[in-house]
Write a structure and sequence with these properties.
This protein is mainly β. 13% of the residues lie in helices and 37% in strands. It has two domains: 1-30; 33-214, Lipocalin, CATH 2.40.128.
Length: 215
Amino acid sequence: MKRFCVALSGILLSMSWCYGQAASAPAQAAGHVVAQGSFPVKITKTLDSSKLKDGDSVQLETAGGFKLVDGTVVPKGTKIEGKVVMAKARSKGDPESQLTLTFSKIGLGEKEVMINGTVQAVFPPVEEESPNMANAGTSQGGSGAGGGSGGVGITNSTPGSNMESSNSQSVMNLKATGVQGLHDLSLDNGVITSKGKNVKLGGGVRMVVHADFLG
């Protein structure tokens, strides 16, 4: 009986050790935060909360070049991969529509930079990149105009909440928060919200992404 108890204890200890390894695996795979910062991106394909569903993959591109803390240069036009966390069109009884995105990877050829990013600010497209301004960046297809954004560097900033402006800004400020220069949209804690039937962000709409860079 004594030998049986000892053997059983050994099995339980082994099971506990295996469980501990399995539980810690996701944390190890996720990596640790080596830097934080904000960078500009641009929507290349219309994002519509009435056509997207939770878990869908999305791909944007950088709207300006910047340099990582290790000296790696991320050029303008680099692909940014992410996914839809929540996509909701306004239906009967709902007061609003919503769209939430997260970003996980910056593609640099053979090198991939893993991130944990959320939307910090939303800006209208520059006019020369999106001539059809009537369909860009609002639930009802409102208008907005902006200017070009040059190369930028990673800067530390903290995402804020609801700050909506009717005046478009010619240059993306990486410390800006909320929706800038677009009507009928608001942004709070990464969630883009509209009182309209859907959140629709047309091609050329720009965003500031705030991210943890993982090592």
